C-alpha cells in the first residue's frame, strides 16, 4: 500500500494539489513533491525492514546459494540507480526480501484494488478541481489537438497508473467481484483514452481484452508457454527491427501511425550503445529532451548500457521461466501484458511493474509464485484418480470372490 501512496504523493504535490502546494510557501512545488515523496519512501523502506525483521527466522532458513544471488542483484540494483537515477530496482529488492514468505496472488490482488481506489480519487480530484490538470497540444498538419494529462504530468502516464489496477484485479478468482471491478477499469480506460488521446495504448487494450484467451493458449500449448519466457529479448529485436524498417524514413506511413516513435528509436539505434550508460552521441540526444525514447527495451539498452540490459533481461527470463514451470499462467499473462505495453512506453517504476518485487522474492523462495488454487485442483484430480483405481481394484476382488468356482 505504501508503494502506491509514495507514487501518488509525488504526483499530487509535484503536479499541483492546491492545498499542499499553497502550504509549501515559497518552496517550489516540485521540491515540495520530492520532499513529501521522500518521507513516504522512507516509511515504505522502514515498513519493509520491520517485516524483514519480523520474518527473520524464515530468512535465516533461505538456502545460501539463493541468498548469495539475491545479494549480488541487490548490489547490481545500487549500481543501476547510480547510472540511471532509477531507484525502482533497489526498492523492489528490499520489498522482495520482505515478501519472500508471502503469496504472489494476495499481493497482486491487494495492489490492484488499491491502485483502482487511488486512480478513482485522482479522477474525483480532477473533476472537483482539487487536483489541477494540464493540457499538452499535439500539433498536426491541420490543427492542434489538446491532450489532457489528468494531473499525471503527461498524457501517457495516466495509463501507467491505471495499468496495475487492471492487471492486479485480473488475479481475483471470484467471478462477480472480478467482473464488477474490471468493468470499472474498462470505463476508466475508455475515459482516459478519450481525454488523453493516447493512440498507441489501443495495442494494450487489445492485449488486455484477450487475456483469458492468452491464458488458455499458455495452458494448452507447451511450445507457446516456453516461447513466452523469452519475450523480453524477442521484443527487443522486434523494436530494433521496427526502428530500422519504419523509423529510417521519418515520413513513412507506419512511423506516422505509431506517433513517430520508430523515428525517434532510429536516432538512438544509430547512436550505438556502450557497456554501461549511454553512448556519447546518445547522451546528446537525451540531454536535448526533444527525443523521447518510449520503449522499455531500447531505453534499457541505450540508456543503461548493455551490461544492465543483460542483467534485467536475465531477471525477466528467470521470473517468466519460474512462472511457466510452476504453471502460474495468471501471473504470466500479467507479465506478457506489461511487456506488450512496454513496446510503446518506457515506464519502469514500482507502480507500473507491480510484479517487480515478486521477481526478487521468487529468487529467495520459489513457493511465492506457486498458485495454491491450481495445486489444490491438481491434488483433487490425483485423489480422484486414486479413488477410481482403488474402486476398480476392489471391484475385481469382489467379483472374483463371488464368481462360481469350477470343480
Give a verbal description of the structure.
With 407 residues, the protein is mainly α. It has a domain at 203-344. 72% of the residues lie in helices and 2% in strands. The chain is built from 21 helices and two strands. It has a two-stranded antiparallel sheet with strand order 1-2. Strand 1 (135-139) and strand 2 (144-148) form a beta hairpin. The longest helix is centred in the C-terminal third of the chain and has 31 residues, at 372-402. It starts with a helix and ends in a 5-residue tail after the last helix.
What is the count of DSSP helices, taking H or I runs of 4+ residues?
A: 21
**End-to-end gap:** 80 Å
Are there runs of 5+ residues with pLDDT below 50, and where?
16-34, 375-388
**Average pLDDT across residues?**
80
Largest sheet: 2 strands, antiparallel
What is the approximate shape?
Answer: globular
User: In percent, how much strand structure appears in the residues?
Assistant: under 5%
Record field, number of beta strands: 2
Radius of gyration: 25 Å
Question: Which short descriptors sum up this protein?
Answer:
single chain; 407 residues; mainly alpha; two-stranded antiparallel ribbon; 21 helices; 2 strands
Short description:
By secondary structure, this protein is mainly α.
List the SSEs and their pairings.
Elements lengths: L1 H14 L2 H6 L5 H26 L1 H5 L3 H21 L3 H11 L5 H25 L6 E5 L4 E5 L6 H15 L5 H22 L4 H9 L1 H10 L1 H7 L2 H16 L6 H5 L3 H11 L8 H9 L7 H9 L1 H20 L3 H13 L14 H9 L7 H31 L5
Amino acid at each position: 500500500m505504501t508503494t502506491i501512496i509514495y507514487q501518488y504523493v509525488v504526483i499530487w504535490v509535484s503536479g499541483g494539489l492546491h492545498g499542499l502546494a499553497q502550504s509549501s510557501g515559497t518552496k517550489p512545488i516540485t521540491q515540495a513533491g520530492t520532499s513529501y515523496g521522500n518521507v513516504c519512501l522512507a516509511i515504505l523502506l522502514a515498513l519493509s525492514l520491520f517485516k524483514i525483521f519480523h520474518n527473520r527466522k524464515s530468512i535465516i532458513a533461505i538456502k545460501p546459494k539463493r541468498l548469495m544471488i539475491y545479494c549480488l542483484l541487490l548490489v547490481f540494483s545500487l549500481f543501476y540507480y547510480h547510472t540511471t537515477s532509477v531507484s525502482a530496482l533497489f526498492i523492489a529488492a528490499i520489498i522482495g526480501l520482505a515478501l519472500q514468505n508471502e503469496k504472489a496472488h494476495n499481493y497482486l490482488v491487494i495492489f490492484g484494488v488499491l491502485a483502482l481506489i487511488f486512480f478513482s480519487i485522482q479522477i474525483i480530484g480532477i473533476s472537483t478541481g482539487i487536483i489541477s490538470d494540464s493540457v499538452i497540444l499535439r500539433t498536426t498538419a491541420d490543427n492542434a489537438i489538446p491532450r489532457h494529462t489528468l494531473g499525471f504530468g503527461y498524457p501517457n502516464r495516466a495509463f501507467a497508473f491505471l495499468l496495475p489496477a487492471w492487471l492486479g484485479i485480473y488475479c481475483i478468482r471470484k467471478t462477480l467481484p472480478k467482473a464488477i471491478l474490471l468493468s470499472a477499469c474498462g470505463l476508466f480506460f475508455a475515459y482516459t483514452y478519450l481525454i488523453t488521446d493516447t493512440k498507441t495504448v489501443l495495442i494494450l487494450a487489445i492485449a488486455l481484452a484477450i487475456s483469458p484467451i492468452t491464458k488458455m493458449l499458455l495452458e494448452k500449448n507447451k511450445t507457446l508457454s516456453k516461447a513466452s519466457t523469452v519475450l523480453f529479448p524477442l521484443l527487443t529485436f522486434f523494436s530494433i527491427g521496427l526502428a530500422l524498417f519504419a523509423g529510417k524514413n521519418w515520413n513513412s506511413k507506419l512511423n506516422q501511425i505509431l506517433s513517430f516513435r520508430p523515428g525517434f528509436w532510429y536516432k538512438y539505434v544509430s547512436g550505438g550503445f556502450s557497456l554501461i550508460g549511454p553512448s556519447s552521441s546518445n547522451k546528446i540526444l537525451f540531454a536535448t529532451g526533444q527525443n523521447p525514447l518510449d520503449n522499455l527495451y531500447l531505453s534499457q539498452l541505450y540508456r543503461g548500457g548493455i551490461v544492465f540490459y543483460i542483467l534485467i533481461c536475465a531477471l525477466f527470463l528467470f521470473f517468466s521461466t519460474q512462472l511457466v514451470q510452476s504453471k502460474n499462467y495468471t501471473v504470466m499473462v500479467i507479465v506478457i501484458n506489461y511487456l506488450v505495453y512496454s513496446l510503446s512506453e518506457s515506464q519502469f517504476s514500482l507502480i507500473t511493474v507491480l510484479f517487480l518485487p515478486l521477481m526478487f522474492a521468487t529468487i529467495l523462495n520459489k513457493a511465492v509464485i506457486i498458485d495454491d488454487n491450481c495445486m489444490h485442483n491438481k491434488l483433487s484430480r490425483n485423489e480422484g484418480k486414486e479413488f477410481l483405481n482403488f474402486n476398480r481394484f476392489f471391484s475385481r476382488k469382489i467379483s472374483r470372490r463371488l464368481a462360481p468356482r469350477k470343480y
